[in-house]
Design a protein that fits this description.
By secondary structure, the protein is mainly alpha-helical. It has one domain. The chain is 78% helix and 0% strand. The longest helix has 27 residues.
Length: 40
């Protein structure tokens, strides 16, 4: 059974969304995030 494939997809999506969230937090703290574009 290919259970690991499903779990790997879940792990990958959590990893990608976490990386994107951390990138936004770091960019905001470094004042590199253009909030007008971000809020569109």
């Amino acid at each position: 059974m290919a259970v690991d494939r499903i779990l790997d997809m879940i792990r990958t999506s959590v990893n990608v969304s976490g990386d994107a969230a951390v990138a936004c937090v770091v960019a905001s703290s470094e004042e590199l995030l253009d909030k007008n574009i971000f809020n569109k």
